[in-house]
Amino acid sequence: MLPCVIVVFVLLSCACGENPAVQVILTNKGLQYGKHEGTGWIQEKLEKITFPDISGSVNIHIGRVYYTLSGVTIKKCDLPEPSVEFVQQSGLTTSIAGLSFALAGEWRNHFGLIHDSGSFDMAIFNIDVTSAVKLGSNAGGHLSVTSVNCTASVGDVSMQFHGGASWIFQPFVKYFKGHIIGIIQSKICPEVEDTIMNLDHHLQAMNVSFDVNEVLSFDVPLTGDPDIEPSNMKLGFKGEFHSIETHAEPPFVAQEFVLPELAGYMLSVGLSEFTLNSASFGYFSAGQLQAFINDSMIPPYIPFRLNTSAMGGFIPQLPKMYPGLLMNLQVNARDAPMFSFQPGSGVLDVHICVKASATESNGTQVPLFTLYIDSRFTGKMMIADGKLKGSMMLNNVTLTLGSSEIGDFKTDALENGIKSGMVVVLGKLNAKLGEGIMLPRMKHAQLVNTVLKMQKGFVGIYSDVQILQTDRSSYLSTSYL
Ligand SMILES: *[C@@H]1O[C@H](CO)[C@@H](O)[C@H](O)[C@H]1NC(C)=O
Ligand SMILES: *[C@@H]1O[C@H](CO)[C@@H](O)[C@H](O)[C@H]1NC(C)=O
Ligand SMILES: *[C@@H]1O[C@H](CO)[C@@H](O)[C@H](O)[C@H]1NC(C)=O
Ligand SMILES: *[C@@H]1O[C@H](CO)[C@@H](O)[C@H](O)[C@H]1NC(C)=O
Ligand SMILES: *[C@@H]1O[C@H](CO)[C@@H](O)[C@H](O)[C@H]1NC(C)=O
Ligand SMILES: *[C@@H]1O[C@H](CO)[C@@H](O)[C@H](O)[C@H]1NC(C)=O
Protein backbone atom coordinates (compact mmCIF):
# COMPACT_ATOMS: atom_id res chain seq x y z
CA MET A 1 0.00 0.00 0.00
CA LEU A 2 2.94 2.31 0.53
CA PRO A 3 4.14 2.55 -3.03
CA CYS A 4 1.56 5.16 -3.89
CA VAL A 5 3.01 7.69 -1.53
CA ILE A 6 6.53 7.11 -2.75
CA VAL A 7 5.35 7.95 -6.28
CA VAL A 8 6.26 11.54 -5.64
CA PHE A 9 9.85 10.66 -4.70
CA VAL A 10 10.28 8.59 -7.80
CA LEU A 11 8.85 11.34 -9.94
CA LEU A 12 11.60 13.60 -8.74
CA SER A 13 14.12 11.43 -9.87
CA CYS A 14 16.07 11.78 -10.55
CA ALA A 15 26.90 10.63 -0.51
CA CYS A 16 27.07 11.70 2.99
CA GLY A 17 28.46 14.40 5.23
CA GLU A 18 28.58 17.28 2.72
CA ASN A 19 26.20 20.14 2.17
CA PRO A 20 23.38 19.19 -0.15
CA ALA A 21 23.46 21.28 -3.33
CA VAL A 22 19.94 20.25 -4.25
CA GLN A 23 17.18 20.25 -1.68
CA VAL A 24 13.67 18.97 -2.11
CA ILE A 25 10.78 19.53 0.26
CA LEU A 26 7.71 17.38 -0.16
CA THR A 27 4.88 18.96 1.78
CA ASN A 28 1.89 17.28 3.33
CA LYS A 29 -0.18 18.72 0.47
CA GLY A 30 2.04 16.85 -1.99
CA LEU A 31 1.83 13.68 0.11
CA GLN A 32 -1.96 13.85 0.21
CA TYR A 33 -2.14 14.45 -3.55
CA GLY A 34 0.19 11.50 -4.20
CA LYS A 35 -1.91 9.32 -1.93
CA HIS A 36 -5.16 10.38 -3.59
CA GLU A 37 -3.74 9.66 -7.03
CA GLY A 38 -2.32 6.38 -5.79
CA THR A 39 -5.58 5.11 -4.31
CA GLY A 40 -7.00 4.14 -7.68
CA TRP A 41 -3.83 2.26 -8.39
CA ILE A 42 -4.02 0.37 -5.10
CA GLN A 43 -7.58 -0.59 -5.95
CA GLU A 44 -6.43 -1.96 -9.31
CA LYS A 45 -3.62 -3.85 -7.56
CA LEU A 46 -5.95 -5.27 -4.93
CA GLU A 47 -8.30 -6.55 -7.57
CA LYS A 48 -5.45 -8.56 -9.03
CA ILE A 49 -4.06 -10.18 -5.89
CA THR A 50 -4.29 -13.92 -5.73
CA PHE A 51 -5.61 -15.58 -2.64
CA PRO A 52 -3.97 -18.73 -1.37
CA ASP A 53 -6.05 -21.84 -1.00
CA ILE A 54 -7.52 -22.20 2.44
CA SER A 55 -7.83 -25.68 3.97
CA GLY A 56 -9.16 -26.79 7.31
CA SER A 57 -11.54 -29.07 8.99
CA VAL A 58 -14.67 -28.72 11.05
CA ASN A 59 -16.32 -31.15 13.41
CA ILE A 60 -19.98 -31.58 12.47
CA HIS A 61 -20.99 -33.79 15.48
CA ILE A 62 -21.00 -36.98 13.45
CA GLY A 63 -17.38 -36.59 12.36
CA ARG A 64 -14.81 -34.31 10.85
CA VAL A 65 -15.26 -32.66 7.45
CA TYR A 66 -12.10 -31.59 5.67
CA TYR A 67 -12.54 -28.63 3.34
CA THR A 68 -10.44 -26.70 0.82
CA LEU A 69 -11.35 -23.35 -0.69
CA SER A 70 -9.45 -22.78 -3.91
CA GLY A 71 -9.38 -20.71 -7.09
CA VAL A 72 -10.41 -17.65 -5.12
CA THR A 73 -10.88 -14.60 -7.33
CA ILE A 74 -11.84 -11.07 -6.38
CA LYS A 75 -15.15 -9.92 -7.83
CA LYS A 76 -15.21 -6.52 -6.27
CA CYS A 77 -13.08 -4.49 -3.92
CA ASP A 78 -14.32 -1.50 -2.01
CA LEU A 79 -11.40 0.66 -0.98
CA PRO A 80 -12.08 3.64 1.23
CA GLU A 81 -9.46 6.38 0.81
CA PRO A 82 -6.48 5.49 3.00
CA SER A 83 -4.86 8.02 5.30
CA VAL A 84 -1.16 8.79 5.11
CA GLU A 85 0.82 10.97 7.49
CA PHE A 86 4.39 11.97 8.03
CA VAL A 87 5.77 10.82 11.38
CA GLN A 88 8.27 13.15 13.07
CA GLN A 89 11.88 12.11 12.40
CA SER A 90 10.79 8.65 11.35
CA GLY A 91 8.74 8.07 8.24
CA LEU A 92 5.15 7.55 7.34
CA THR A 93 2.10 5.80 8.63
CA THR A 94 -0.58 4.58 6.30
CA SER A 95 -3.90 3.22 7.38
CA ILE A 96 -6.94 1.89 5.63
CA ALA A 97 -10.16 1.33 7.51
CA GLY A 98 -13.21 -0.52 6.25
CA LEU A 99 -11.75 -2.26 3.23
CA SER A 100 -14.14 -4.91 1.86
CA PHE A 101 -13.90 -7.63 -0.79
CA ALA A 102 -16.39 -9.80 -2.62
CA LEU A 103 -14.81 -13.10 -3.67
CA ALA A 104 -15.81 -16.25 -5.47
CA GLY A 105 -14.17 -19.68 -5.70
CA GLU A 106 -14.52 -23.44 -5.54
CA TRP A 107 -14.98 -25.59 -2.48
CA ARG A 108 -14.13 -29.25 -2.02
CA ASN A 109 -14.59 -31.37 1.03
CA HIS A 110 -14.33 -34.89 2.14
CA PHE A 111 -16.08 -36.56 4.99
CA GLY A 112 -14.85 -40.09 5.36
CA LEU A 113 -15.04 -41.57 1.86
CA ILE A 114 -17.51 -39.00 0.57
CA HIS A 115 -16.00 -36.33 -1.68
CA ASP A 116 -18.06 -33.38 -2.74
CA SER A 117 -17.48 -30.02 -4.42
CA GLY A 118 -19.15 -26.84 -5.61
CA SER A 119 -18.70 -23.11 -5.75
CA PHE A 120 -18.97 -20.38 -3.16
CA ASP A 121 -19.31 -16.62 -2.76
CA MET A 122 -17.56 -14.92 0.08
CA ALA A 123 -17.57 -11.37 1.41
CA ILE A 124 -14.84 -10.06 3.70
CA PHE A 125 -15.88 -6.94 5.57
CA ASN A 126 -14.14 -4.14 7.41
CA ILE A 127 -10.51 -4.96 7.00
CA ASP A 128 -8.38 -2.41 8.86
CA VAL A 129 -4.67 -2.17 8.11
CA THR A 130 -2.17 0.22 9.66
CA SER A 131 1.44 0.23 8.58
CA ALA A 132 4.31 2.41 9.76
CA VAL A 133 7.50 2.69 7.76
CA LYS A 134 10.81 4.30 8.50
CA LEU A 135 12.43 6.34 5.76
CA GLY A 136 16.18 6.66 5.80
CA SER A 137 19.19 6.70 3.55
CA ASN A 138 21.87 4.08 3.07
CA ALA A 139 25.59 4.44 2.46
CA GLY A 140 25.02 4.52 -1.30
CA GLY A 141 22.80 7.57 -0.96
CA HIS A 142 19.59 5.73 -1.76
CA LEU A 143 16.34 6.42 0.02
CA SER A 144 15.49 3.38 2.10
CA VAL A 145 12.13 2.25 3.41
CA THR A 146 11.66 -0.35 6.13
CA SER A 147 8.56 -1.60 7.86
CA VAL A 148 8.39 -0.53 11.51
CA ASN A 149 5.11 -2.13 12.43
CA CYS A 150 1.92 -3.37 10.87
CA THR A 151 -1.43 -4.31 12.31
CA ALA A 152 -4.35 -5.86 10.47
CA SER A 153 -7.81 -6.93 11.51
CA VAL A 154 -10.72 -8.45 9.63
CA GLY A 155 -14.20 -7.46 10.79
CA ASP A 156 -16.31 -10.32 9.46
CA VAL A 157 -16.65 -12.91 6.73
CA SER A 158 -19.83 -14.23 5.20
CA MET A 159 -20.02 -17.26 2.89
CA GLN A 160 -22.59 -18.81 0.64
CA PHE A 161 -21.99 -22.33 -0.72
CA HIS A 162 -23.54 -23.59 -3.96
CA GLY A 163 -23.69 -27.02 -5.60
CA GLY A 164 -23.10 -30.51 -4.23
CA ALA A 165 -24.30 -31.12 -0.72
CA SER A 166 -23.66 -27.53 0.23
CA TRP A 167 -26.92 -27.42 2.20
CA ILE A 168 -25.32 -29.82 4.66
CA PHE A 169 -22.21 -27.73 4.86
CA GLN A 170 -23.75 -24.24 4.99
CA PRO A 171 -25.05 -24.40 8.59
CA PHE A 172 -21.52 -25.09 9.86
CA VAL A 173 -20.01 -21.92 8.36
CA LYS A 174 -20.25 -20.24 11.75
CA TYR A 175 -17.91 -22.87 13.20
CA PHE A 176 -15.07 -22.48 10.72
CA LYS A 177 -15.54 -18.82 9.82
CA GLY A 178 -13.19 -17.84 12.67
CA HIS A 179 -10.48 -20.04 11.19
CA ILE A 180 -10.88 -18.34 7.81
CA ILE A 181 -10.83 -14.84 9.34
CA GLY A 182 -7.66 -15.81 11.22
CA ILE A 183 -5.96 -17.05 8.06
CA ILE A 184 -6.83 -13.93 6.10
CA GLN A 185 -5.78 -11.67 8.97
CA SER A 186 -2.45 -13.43 9.33
CA LYS A 187 -1.68 -13.03 5.61
CA ILE A 188 -2.20 -9.25 5.39
CA CYS A 189 0.84 -7.90 7.27
CA PRO A 190 3.35 -10.29 5.64
CA GLU A 191 1.90 -9.14 2.30
CA VAL A 192 2.29 -5.46 3.29
CA GLU A 193 5.85 -6.10 4.51
CA ASP A 194 6.70 -7.85 1.24
CA THR A 195 5.41 -4.87 -0.69
CA ILE A 196 7.55 -2.54 1.41
CA MET A 197 10.59 -4.76 0.85
CA ASN A 198 9.95 -4.77 -2.89
CA LEU A 199 9.69 -1.02 -2.84
CA ASP A 200 12.96 -0.81 -0.93
CA HIS A 201 14.67 -3.09 -3.47
CA HIS A 202 13.35 -0.83 -6.17
CA LEU A 203 14.71 2.25 -4.43
CA GLN A 204 18.11 0.58 -3.90
CA ALA A 205 18.25 -0.26 -7.60
CA MET A 206 17.63 3.31 -8.67
CA ASN A 207 20.61 5.09 -10.12
CA VAL A 208 21.90 7.98 -8.06
CA SER A 209 24.20 9.02 -10.88
CA PHE A 210 23.32 9.27 -14.53
CA ASP A 211 24.78 10.59 -17.73
CA VAL A 212 23.20 13.82 -18.82
CA ASN A 213 24.90 13.91 -22.21
CA GLU A 214 28.18 12.62 -23.62
CA VAL A 215 30.17 15.11 -21.51
CA LEU A 216 28.52 15.29 -18.10
CA SER A 217 27.17 12.94 -15.49
CA PHE A 218 24.98 14.10 -12.62
CA ASP A 219 25.37 12.69 -9.11
CA VAL A 220 22.29 12.90 -6.92
CA PRO A 221 22.78 10.59 -3.95
CA LEU A 222 21.11 11.67 -0.72
CA THR A 223 23.51 13.51 1.60
CA GLY A 224 21.73 12.28 4.73
CA ASP A 225 18.54 10.90 6.18
CA PRO A 226 15.28 12.59 5.24
CA ASP A 227 14.31 15.28 7.73
CA ILE A 228 10.68 14.53 8.51
CA GLU A 229 8.18 16.71 10.30
CA PRO A 230 4.42 16.30 10.39
CA SER A 231 4.04 19.02 7.74
CA ASN A 232 6.77 18.01 5.33
CA MET A 233 9.77 15.91 4.45
CA LYS A 234 13.09 17.46 3.41
CA LEU A 235 15.59 15.61 1.28
CA GLY A 236 19.12 16.78 0.55
CA PHE A 237 20.96 15.61 -2.56
CA LYS A 238 24.58 16.01 -3.57
CA GLY A 239 23.58 17.61 -6.90
CA GLU A 240 26.99 17.66 -8.53
CA PHE A 241 27.93 17.38 -12.19
CA HIS A 242 31.17 15.73 -13.25
CA SER A 243 33.00 15.36 -16.49
CA ILE A 244 32.51 11.73 -17.55
CA GLU A 245 36.02 11.73 -19.00
CA THR A 246 38.11 13.38 -16.24
CA HIS A 247 35.79 12.99 -13.27
CA ALA A 248 37.74 15.94 -11.81
CA GLU A 249 36.47 17.44 -8.56
CA PRO A 250 35.79 21.16 -8.81
CA PRO A 251 38.06 23.42 -6.70
CA PHE A 252 35.04 24.69 -4.76
CA VAL A 253 32.45 23.08 -2.48
CA ALA A 254 28.72 23.44 -1.96
CA GLN A 255 27.76 26.14 0.51
CA GLU A 256 25.04 25.56 3.02
CA PHE A 257 21.69 27.15 2.23
CA VAL A 258 18.26 27.07 3.76
CA LEU A 259 15.41 26.62 1.33
CA PRO A 260 12.59 28.73 2.76
CA GLU A 261 9.22 27.07 2.91
CA LEU A 262 6.51 28.70 0.86
CA ALA A 263 3.07 27.66 2.01
CA GLY A 264 0.60 26.08 -0.35
CA TYR A 265 2.90 24.20 -2.73
CA MET A 266 3.28 20.44 -2.98
CA LEU A 267 6.94 20.56 -3.74
CA SER A 268 9.88 22.91 -3.31
CA VAL A 269 13.24 22.43 -4.98
CA GLY A 270 16.34 24.44 -4.12
CA LEU A 271 19.13 24.37 -6.68
CA SER A 272 22.38 25.90 -5.51
CA GLU A 273 24.83 27.82 -7.66
CA PHE A 274 27.27 25.00 -6.84
CA THR A 275 25.25 22.65 -9.07
CA LEU A 276 25.47 25.01 -12.04
CA ASN A 277 29.12 25.77 -11.35
CA SER A 278 29.97 22.06 -11.16
CA ALA A 279 28.40 21.65 -14.62
CA SER A 280 30.45 24.57 -15.86
CA PHE A 281 33.59 23.07 -14.31
CA GLY A 282 32.73 19.68 -15.82
CA TYR A 283 32.63 21.18 -19.32
CA PHE A 284 35.83 23.12 -18.61
CA SER A 285 37.77 20.14 -17.28
CA ALA A 286 36.64 18.04 -20.24
CA GLY A 287 38.19 20.67 -22.54
CA GLN A 288 34.79 21.51 -24.00
CA LEU A 289 34.97 25.24 -23.43
CA GLN A 290 36.97 26.10 -26.50
CA ALA A 291 36.09 27.08 -29.99
CA PHE A 292 37.69 27.78 -33.32
CA ILE A 293 36.06 30.68 -35.09
CA ASN A 294 36.63 31.78 -38.69
CA ASP A 295 34.92 34.40 -40.77
CA SER A 296 32.29 32.14 -42.32
CA MET A 297 31.08 31.17 -38.82
CA ILE A 298 30.28 34.74 -37.85
CA PRO A 299 26.60 35.35 -38.51
CA PRO A 300 25.87 38.16 -40.97
CA TYR A 301 24.03 40.27 -38.36
CA ILE A 302 27.26 40.84 -36.43
CA PRO A 303 29.08 43.97 -37.69
CA PHE A 304 32.49 42.37 -37.34
CA ARG A 305 34.47 40.60 -40.05
CA LEU A 306 37.48 38.38 -39.47
CA ASN A 307 39.52 39.96 -42.19
CA THR A 308 42.78 41.86 -41.62
CA SER A 309 41.51 44.73 -43.80
CA ALA A 310 38.23 45.05 -41.92
CA MET A 311 40.19 45.03 -38.63
CA GLY A 312 42.08 48.18 -39.66
CA GLY A 313 39.66 50.31 -37.68
CA PHE A 314 40.70 48.55 -34.46
CA ILE A 315 44.32 47.67 -35.17
CA PRO A 316 45.73 50.20 -37.66
CA GLN A 317 49.00 48.33 -38.40
CA LEU A 318 47.29 45.01 -39.20
CA PRO A 319 46.07 45.71 -42.78
CA LYS A 320 49.43 47.31 -43.53
CA MET A 321 51.35 44.20 -42.50
CA TYR A 322 48.87 41.61 -43.81
CA PRO A 323 46.41 43.17 -46.22
CA GLY A 324 43.17 41.39 -47.19
CA LEU A 325 43.73 38.12 -45.33
CA LEU A 326 41.09 36.11 -43.56
CA MET A 327 41.61 35.62 -39.87
CA ASN A 328 40.60 33.00 -37.36
CA LEU A 329 40.33 32.92 -33.60
CA GLN A 330 41.11 30.14 -31.18
CA VAL A 331 38.96 30.84 -28.12
CA ASN A 332 39.56 29.05 -24.78
CA ALA A 333 38.00 29.53 -21.38
CA ARG A 334 40.79 30.40 -18.93
CA ASP A 335 38.78 28.90 -16.12
CA ALA A 336 35.26 27.59 -15.59
CA PRO A 337 32.61 30.31 -15.99
CA MET A 338 31.13 30.91 -12.54
CA PHE A 339 27.56 31.66 -11.58
CA SER A 340 26.61 33.47 -8.43
CA PHE A 341 23.01 33.97 -7.45
CA GLN A 342 21.68 37.03 -5.68
CA PRO A 343 18.12 37.83 -4.65
CA GLY A 344 16.30 38.54 -7.91
CA SER A 345 19.20 38.05 -10.28
CA GLY A 346 22.33 36.11 -11.06
CA VAL A 347 25.82 36.98 -12.22
CA LEU A 348 27.98 35.02 -14.64
CA ASP A 349 31.71 35.72 -14.88
CA VAL A 350 33.50 34.51 -17.98
CA HIS A 351 37.24 34.69 -18.55
CA ILE A 352 38.52 33.75 -21.95
CA CYS A 353 41.70 33.83 -23.96
CA VAL A 354 41.61 34.54 -27.70
CA LYS A 355 44.50 33.75 -30.06
CA ALA A 356 44.14 35.45 -33.44
CA SER A 357 45.87 34.28 -36.61
CA ALA A 358 45.73 35.27 -40.27
CA THR A 359 45.61 32.74 -43.09
CA GLU A 360 48.12 33.33 -45.92
CA SER A 361 46.89 32.59 -49.44
CA ASN A 362 49.08 29.42 -49.40
CA GLY A 363 47.31 28.28 -46.24
CA THR A 364 50.03 29.17 -43.71
CA GLN A 365 48.71 30.41 -40.36
CA VAL A 366 50.38 33.56 -39.12
CA PRO A 367 49.95 34.20 -35.38
CA LEU A 368 48.89 37.80 -34.75
CA PHE A 369 48.07 38.44 -31.08
CA THR A 370 46.59 37.00 -27.89
CA LEU A 371 43.81 38.77 -25.98
CA TYR A 372 42.32 38.17 -22.55
CA ILE A 373 38.65 39.02 -22.31
CA ASP A 374 36.97 39.26 -18.91
CA SER A 375 33.24 39.73 -19.01
CA ARG A 376 30.47 39.78 -16.51
CA PHE A 377 26.82 39.17 -17.35
CA THR A 378 23.76 39.70 -15.22
CA GLY A 379 20.76 37.50 -15.78
CA LYS A 380 17.27 36.97 -14.53
CA MET A 381 15.23 33.79 -14.59
CA MET A 382 11.53 33.36 -14.08
CA ILE A 383 8.82 30.82 -14.70
CA ALA A 384 5.69 32.06 -16.41
CA ASP A 385 2.99 30.23 -18.39
CA GLY A 386 4.72 26.92 -17.70
CA LYS A 387 7.89 28.13 -19.37
CA LEU A 388 11.32 28.98 -18.04
CA LYS A 389 12.18 32.44 -19.26
CA GLY A 390 15.17 34.65 -18.77
CA SER A 391 17.18 37.59 -19.89
CA MET A 392 20.93 38.32 -19.99
CA MET A 393 22.69 41.64 -19.89
CA LEU A 394 26.32 42.49 -20.44
CA ASN A 395 27.63 44.22 -17.34
CA ASN A 396 31.22 44.69 -18.09
CA VAL A 397 33.83 43.58 -20.56
CA THR A 398 37.55 44.23 -20.20
CA LEU A 399 40.10 43.47 -22.87
CA THR A 400 43.80 43.01 -22.12
CA LEU A 401 46.45 42.40 -24.72
CA GLY A 402 48.36 39.31 -23.66
CA SER A 403 51.01 39.19 -26.35
CA SER A 404 51.35 40.49 -29.88
CA GLU A 405 53.36 39.46 -32.94
CA ILE A 406 52.33 42.64 -34.73
CA GLY A 407 53.41 45.20 -32.14
CA ASP A 408 51.46 46.97 -29.46
CA PHE A 409 48.02 48.44 -30.10
CA LYS A 410 45.33 50.12 -28.05
CA THR A 411 42.48 47.80 -27.13
CA ASP A 412 39.79 50.45 -26.43
CA ALA A 413 38.38 50.44 -29.95
CA LEU A 414 38.41 46.65 -30.13
CA GLU A 415 36.81 46.46 -26.69
CA ASN A 416 33.98 48.68 -27.90
CA GLY A 417 33.69 46.59 -31.06
CA ILE A 418 33.44 43.38 -29.01
CA LYS A 419 30.97 45.03 -26.66
CA SER A 420 28.65 45.95 -29.54
CA GLY A 421 29.11 42.46 -31.02
CA MET A 422 28.10 40.94 -27.67
CA VAL A 423 25.12 43.26 -27.38
CA VAL A 424 23.88 42.07 -30.77
CA VAL A 425 24.36 38.40 -29.78
CA LEU A 426 22.63 38.99 -26.42
CA GLY A 427 19.73 40.67 -28.26
CA LYS A 428 19.22 37.49 -30.29
CA LEU A 429 19.67 35.32 -27.19
CA ASN A 430 17.20 37.39 -25.18
CA ALA A 431 14.60 37.07 -27.92
CA LYS A 432 14.90 33.28 -27.47
CA LEU A 433 15.05 33.44 -23.67
CA GLY A 434 11.99 35.71 -23.68
CA GLU A 435 9.99 33.14 -25.64
CA GLY A 436 10.98 30.70 -22.94
CA ILE A 437 11.54 26.98 -22.93
CA MET A 438 8.86 24.58 -21.77
CA LEU A 439 9.47 23.16 -18.33
CA PRO A 440 10.62 19.57 -18.55
CA ARG A 441 7.52 17.48 -18.68
CA MET A 442 7.79 13.96 -17.44
CA LYS A 443 5.87 11.27 -19.18
CA HIS A 444 3.43 10.84 -16.34
CA ALA A 445 3.50 14.08 -14.43
CA GLN A 446 3.90 17.75 -15.00
CA LEU A 447 4.64 20.76 -12.87
CA VAL A 448 1.83 23.27 -12.50
CA ASN A 449 1.54 26.63 -10.67
CA THR A 450 5.31 26.83 -10.69
CA VAL A 451 7.19 29.85 -9.43
CA LEU A 452 10.92 30.49 -9.35
CA LYS A 453 12.70 32.75 -6.89
CA MET A 454 16.36 33.65 -7.16
CA GLN A 455 17.97 33.89 -3.74
CA LYS A 456 21.47 34.35 -2.40
CA GLY A 457 23.36 31.25 -3.49
CA PHE A 458 20.45 29.28 -4.91
CA VAL A 459 17.21 29.34 -6.86
CA GLY A 460 14.04 28.10 -5.23
CA ILE A 461 11.38 26.49 -7.38
CA TYR A 462 7.95 26.01 -5.84
CA SER A 463 5.38 23.95 -7.60
CA ASP A 464 2.38 21.71 -7.61
CA VAL A 465 2.51 18.44 -9.51
CA GLN A 466 -0.18 17.07 -11.75
CA ILE A 467 -0.15 13.36 -12.41
CA LEU A 468 -1.34 12.72 -15.94
CA GLN A 469 -4.17 10.25 -15.86
CA THR A 470 -3.39 8.53 -19.14
CA ASP A 471 -1.64 5.29 -18.74
CA ARG A 472 -1.18 5.65 -15.01
CA SER A 473 -1.32 2.00 -14.23
CA SER A 474 1.35 1.00 -16.71
CA TYR A 475 3.66 3.73 -15.43
CA LEU A 476 3.31 2.68 -11.85
CA SER A 477 3.72 -0.94 -12.57
CA THR A 478 6.86 -0.40 -14.61
CA SER A 479 8.50 1.97 -12.21
CA TYR A 480 7.79 -0.03 -9.09
CA LEU A 481 7.58 -3.64 -9.82
C1 LIG B 1 4.17 1.94 14.97
O1 LIG B 1 5.23 2.84 14.69
C2 LIG B 1 4.87 4.20 14.77
C3 LIG B 1 6.05 4.99 14.29
O2 LIG B 1 7.24 4.59 14.88
C4 LIG B 1 4.45 4.54 16.18
O3 LIG B 1 4.07 5.90 16.24
C5 LIG B 1 3.29 3.65 16.56
O4 LIG B 1 2.95 3.89 17.90
C6 LIG B 1 3.64 2.19 16.37
N1 LIG B 1 2.45 1.41 16.57
C7 LIG B 1 2.48 0.26 17.21
C8 LIG B 1 1.19 -0.44 17.31
O5 LIG B 1 3.50 -0.18 17.71
C1 LIG C 1 21.85 2.82 -14.16
O1 LIG C 1 23.05 3.25 -14.76
C2 LIG C 1 23.70 2.24 -15.52
C3 LIG C 1 25.02 2.79 -15.99
O2 LIG C 1 24.97 4.16 -16.22
C4 LIG C 1 22.78 1.82 -16.66
O3 LIG C 1 23.41 0.80 -17.40
C5 LIG C 1 21.48 1.32 -16.09
O4 LIG C 1 20.58 1.01 -17.13
C6 LIG C 1 20.85 2.36 -15.19
N1 LIG C 1 19.69 1.79 -14.55
C7 LIG C 1 18.52 2.40 -14.51
C8 LIG C 1 17.44 1.69 -13.78
O5 LIG C 1 18.33 3.49 -15.05
C1 LIG D 1 35.57 27.87 -41.40
O1 LIG D 1 35.58 26.62 -40.71
C2 LIG D 1 34.63 25.72 -41.22
C3 LIG D 1 34.65 24.50 -40.33
O2 LIG D 1 35.90 24.29 -39.79
C4 LIG D 1 34.96 25.38 -42.67
O3 LIG D 1 33.98 24.49 -43.16
C5 LIG D 1 34.97 26.66 -43.48
O4 LIG D 1 35.38 26.39 -44.79
C6 LIG D 1 35.92 27.67 -42.87
N1 LIG D 1 35.81 28.91 -43.57
C7 LIG D 1 36.86 29.62 -43.95
C8 LIG D 1 36.57 30.89 -44.66
O5 LIG D 1 37.99 29.22 -43.70
C1 LIG E 1 38.94 41.05 -46.81
O1 LIG E 1 38.29 42.32 -46.93
C2 LIG E 1 38.77 43.06 -48.05
C3 LIG E 1 38.13 44.45 -47.95
O2 LIG E 1 36.93 44.46 -47.27
C4 LIG E 1 38.43 42.35 -49.30
O3 LIG E 1 38.91 43.07 -50.40
C5 LIG E 1 39.08 40.97 -49.28
O4 LIG E 1 38.72 40.23 -50.43
C6 LIG E 1 38.70 40.22 -48.04
N1 LIG E 1 39.50 39.01 -47.99
C7 LIG E 1 38.99 37.82 -48.16
C8 LIG E 1 39.96 36.68 -48.18
O5 LIG E 1 37.78 37.60 -48.23
C1 LIG F 1 53.36 31.06 -47.63
O1 LIG F 1 53.50 32.41 -48.07
C2 LIG F 1 54.26 33.24 -47.18
C3 LIG F 1 54.27 34.65 -47.75
O2 LIG F 1 53.30 34.84 -48.73
C4 LIG F 1 55.66 32.71 -47.05
O3 LIG F 1 56.39 33.52 -46.14
C5 LIG F 1 55.62 31.28 -46.56
O4 LIG F 1 56.91 30.74 -46.52
C6 LIG F 1 54.71 30.45 -47.46
N1 LIG F 1 54.61 29.12 -46.86
C7 LIG F 1 54.71 28.01 -47.56
C8 LIG F 1 54.59 26.73 -46.81
O5 LIG F 1 54.90 28.02 -48.75
C1 LIG G 1 34.62 46.03 -14.93
O1 LIG G 1 35.44 44.99 -14.43
C2 LIG G 1 36.67 45.41 -13.88
C3 LIG G 1 37.48 44.22 -13.49
O2 LIG G 1 36.82 43.05 -13.76
C4 LIG G 1 36.41 46.34 -12.72
O3 LIG G 1 37.61 46.81 -12.21
C5 LIG G 1 35.54 47.49 -13.16
O4 LIG G 1 35.20 48.29 -12.08
C6 LIG G 1 34.28 46.99 -13.83
N1 LIG G 1 33.52 48.12 -14.35
C7 LIG G 1 32.22 48.25 -14.13
C8 LIG G 1 31.59 49.46 -14.78
O5 LIG G 1 31.61 47.47 -13.47
TrEMBL record:
<feature type="disulfide bond">
    <location>
        <begin position="150"/>
        <end position="189"/>
    </location>
</feature>
<keyword id="KW-0964">Secreted</keyword>
<dbReference type="GO" id="GO:0008289">
    <property type="term" value="F:lipid binding"/>
</dbReference>
<dbReference type="GO" id="GO:0050829">
    <property type="term" value="P:defense response to Gram-negative bacterium"/>
</dbReference>
<dbReference type="Pfam" id="PF01273">
    <property type="entry name" value="LBP_BPI_CETP"/>
</dbReference>
<comment type="subunit">
    <text>Monomer. Homodimer; disulfide-linked.</text>
</comment>
<keyword id="KW-0325">Glycoprotein</keyword>
<keyword id="KW-0732">Signal</keyword>
<feature type="domain" description="Lipid-binding serum glycoprotein N-terminal">
    <location>
        <begin position="26"/>
        <end position="246"/>
    </location>
</feature>
<comment type="function">
    <text>The cytotoxic action of BPI is limited to many species of Gram-negative bacteria; this specificity may be explained by a strong affinity of the very basic N-terminal half for the negatively charged lipopolysaccharides that are unique to the Gram-negative bacterial outer envelope.</text>
</comment>
<keyword id="KW-0929">Antimicrobial</keyword>
<dbReference type="InterPro" id="IPR030675">
    <property type="entry name" value="BPI/LBP"/>
</dbReference>
<protein>
    <recommendedName>
        <fullName>Bactericidal permeability-increasing protein</fullName>
    </recommendedName>
</protein>
<dbReference type="GO" id="GO:0045087">
    <property type="term" value="P:innate immune response"/>
</dbReference>
<dbReference type="InterPro" id="IPR017943">
    <property type="entry name" value="Bactericidal_perm-incr_a/b_dom"/>
</dbReference>
<dbReference type="Pfam" id="PF02886">
    <property type="entry name" value="LBP_BPI_CETP_C"/>
</dbReference>
<dbReference type="InterPro" id="IPR032942">
    <property type="entry name" value="BPI/LBP/Plunc"/>
</dbReference>
<feature type="domain" description="Lipid-binding serum glycoprotein C-terminal">
    <location>
        <begin position="261"/>
        <end position="463"/>
    </location>
</feature>
<feature type="signal peptide">
    <location>
        <begin position="1"/>
        <end position="17"/>
    </location>
</feature>
<keyword id="KW-0391">Immunity</keyword>
<keyword id="KW-0044">Antibiotic</keyword>
<dbReference type="InterPro" id="IPR017942">
    <property type="entry name" value="Lipid-bd_serum_glycop_N"/>
</dbReference>
<dbReference type="GO" id="GO:0005615">
    <property type="term" value="C:extracellular space"/>
</dbReference>
<comment type="similarity">
    <text>Belongs to the BPI/LBP/Plunc superfamily. BPI/LBP family.</text>
</comment>
<keyword id="KW-1015">Disulfide bond</keyword>
<keyword id="KW-0399">Innate immunity</keyword>
<dbReference type="InterPro" id="IPR001124">
    <property type="entry name" value="Lipid-bd_serum_glycop_C"/>
</dbReference>
